[in-house]
Amino acid sequence: MPIGEYTDSMEIVVFGAGSLGSLIGGCLTRAHDVTLLGRNPHVKAIRRSGLEIVGECEFRTYPDARTDGPPEADLAVLTTKAFDTDSAARALSGRADCVLSLQNGMGNEDVLRTELDRVLAGTCTYGALYREPGVVKCTGRGEVVLGALPERRSKARDHDDRADGTGRVNRIDHAVADRVGAAFRKAGIEATVAEDMTERLWEKLAVNAAINPVTALSRAPNGALRTGEAHRLATGAARETARVAREGSVDLPEDRALTALEDVLETTAGNDSSMLQDVQQERRTEIEAISGYVADRANEPVPITETLRDLVRAWERERNLR
């Protein structure tokens, strides 16, 4: 069923079913037909015994799970690493009526728009931790905020309502965002549909640019950034990100970025950031889509951000991860 005709349950594929994707996908099964697209041995365990969610949410569910290409769906929720966005866009082309990105970093939606007609941006403050194959821990309840972005760049050109490059958003996208928000709420996920997604994405980027590389390099949980040298580095990176946003005409005051940072540090003090988890498991990080994105768009020097980026890059090169 085309998403524009959505009235009840949806066919949803979660592309990149690691910790967060599995948590969101598991919650969505409470109202929708969900397929998790991930990797073994996680997928094998789900197919054998279902998906168990523990922690602040406690339930077991039995979504379809696979490692091959995505099935056709009304909605694809993308939770892959930023560096996998291009391959995900190609895999989802012609398979999903709409794609919602809940990824870290910036620029993912632009990549998706090269292959897909309807792309929504989103942020998610649910906390998730992969425990073992088939088991994911919810470390904190949050909300999903989603919406359409301006300056739509799609390969399709068959809708008169499409944005014309002046910054308007396709009216069709607003209707789709409302329906996707309703679908999330139907499954018990707190969801808000927002019209200021550009500002919200930059605010999230400021938080990620502050927390992720500092925790990864110091091997410390989020709460360690609330005081001392780590706090000075984190707040400095957040300030630089907010300034770069304003240089690009995005309304992100410094105090808004810093308040968002302090809120996240308080509510996730015991959590390990996604970049710290990557470093602990010697996996490639998303540093380019976070600190690299900020540094590449700065009109003036951003020394803290550049230093954090370069140190993580050096760590990756030493381990042949780049």
Radius of gyration: 19 Å
Strand order of the largest sheet: 5-2-1-6-7-8-11-12
- SSE order, one letter for each helix or strand: EHEHEEEEHEHEEEEHEHHHHHH
Head-to-tail CA distance between termini = 41 Å
Mean pLDDT: 92
Helix content: 40-55%
Shape: globular
The count of DSSP E runs of length 2 or more, i.e. the number of strands, is 12
How many distinct domains? 2
Question: What would the CATH topology of the largest domain be?
Answer: Rossmann fold
Report low-confidence residues grouped into runs of 5 or more: 152-166
Q: Which CATH C-level class of the largest domain is it?
A: Alpha Beta
The share of residues in extended strands comes to: 15-25%
Corresponding CATH architecture of the largest domain? 3-Layer(aba) Sandwich
Strand-pairing-aware structural class = alpha/beta
Largest sheet: 8 strands, mixed
> Helix count?
11
Give a short synopsis of this structure.
With 322 residues, the chain is of the alpha/beta class. The protein contains 11 helices and 12 strands.
Question: Topology, please?
Answer:
Elements: E1 11-15, H1 19-28, E2 33-37, H2 42-49, E3 51-55, E4 59-61, E5 64-66, E6 73-78, H3 85-92, E7 96-101, H4 108-113, E8 119-124, E9 127-132, E10 135-140, E11 144-147, H5 171-186, E12 191-193, H6 197-218, H7 228-247, H8 254-267, H9 274-280, H10 291-296, H11 303-318
Parallel strand pairs: 1-2, 1-6, 2-5, 3-10, 6-7, 7-8, 11-12
Antiparallel strand pairs: 3-4, 8-11, 9-10
Helix pairs in contact: 6-7, 6-8, 6-9, 6-11, 7-8
